[in-house]
Amino acid sequence: MKTFAKFATVALCACLAAGALAGCGGNKNQVVVWGGAEDQVLLKKLVDEFKEANPDVKETIKVMVQDAWDAQSVVAKDPEKAADVILIPHDQVGIMAQSGLLAEIRDGTAATFATDIRTNNDPATVQQATYKEKLYGFPLTMDTYIMYYTTEIFDETKNVSEEFLSSVDAMLSVDPNAMKVIPGSASGERAKAFGFNMTDGFYVNMGFFAMGCTLYGENGDDVGACDWNSENGMKFMRYAAANFRQSNANFKSDDAKNLATALLNQRLGACISGGWEMQDTFKKASSIKYRTLPSITVDGVQKPLVAFSNSKQYVVNNVSKHKATASRIAAYITSEESQLRYAEERGYYPANRNAQENAAVKDDPFFKVIREQLDLSVPVPIIPEISRYWEAAKQLGTSIYNGSLGGEDDDLRGALAEFISALNSII
Hints:
Layout: H1 10-18, H2 22-26, E1 30-35, H3 40-53, E2 60-65, H4 71-77, E3 85-89, H5 93-98, H6 113-120, H7 123-128, E4 130-131, E5 134-135, E6 137-150, H8 162-165, H9 168-172, E7 192-195, H10 201-210, H11 231-243, E8 251-252, H12 256-264, E9 268-274, E10 288-291, E11 295-298, E12 301-304, E13 308-316, H13 323-333, H14 336-346, E14 349-350, H15 353-357, H16 359-362, H17 365-375, E15 378-379, H18 389-401, H19 409-423
Parallel strand pairs: 1-2, 7-8, 7-9, 13-15
Antiparallel strand pairs: 3-13, 4-5, 6-9, 6-10, 6-13, 6-14, 11-12
């Protein structure tokens, strides 16, 4: 997700370098909290405030860097050396719970953790925290992806309209020689019109979902129900083979972060990427605008692309010696007040329902677009089998983009058959 599995396991490497692993579960009177590198300042503030508000907590608390997307694989290698409080994307809940890596979140005699989670958070995030009717996560944020564009190339006050920006076909049909010359290009290279990461399963799904296909059935929990190899799936394959190839002068596939940077540098007119780009890449860029996903034209009908959505959740390591304190910390850093601070300081859309209704969130133009796209999105399935999807989808998208897959129906059907076969393989 965000490729959903890409980044370095910083915390574990740091501990290994230190030799003693004292900061990764080795200290019997220490609770370790993992969070992303970009969130360390806020997370440490919240933990310090937790300590001050809870003087009865006797354990020391240490905040360390660990990217959420790699958390499952790091914990699975050695749960004893992992943190007590761990941030993960929700699609890792199922496989981690199935593997016995997560502590079930329950109400206690002096705390109502489970009740509070179910009462206070967006129902979608509660469902994403639940596996086989047991609750495992403290929801923190919700996210999806949208379309960004730069007014340096697509200026809505001069040469483009809402109709243009809402159509992939319109953007791809621009004369490549009419696109803006990239600033500083000695050879006169021109910008491309539109891009997204065709080789990433987090984005490949968009066209299939637009055509009404499902990945694991309507509810995302039916392992054998992927229908991408249907006639509707074939219609998108034909569209993708015709439009989303490397040979298309107006289309660019790359890592989402690279595409965002290309947009910023006027090498690209529009791209699809996650809400997280506004937190960092586009934070102070006045030329960057955003909107919900555009449509593709299939059989003469506009079909809006449909995004995946996800949430991030704090979970408790099942082998933690401090589950009670870990749960208290997780509850504190995912509270309504904390989520509002994540929204205001880090640009994350909150999972907490009251926080969503707060004026700082509800009246924010960017959050309005995120909310609109969330309502049009499909949550990444939570079932453990989702772990088989990412590589299979990557191979499918890559074969289309690099041209190794021909455009004939037999080739396209064969590629879809291979994709379905990979989905049905053993985890």
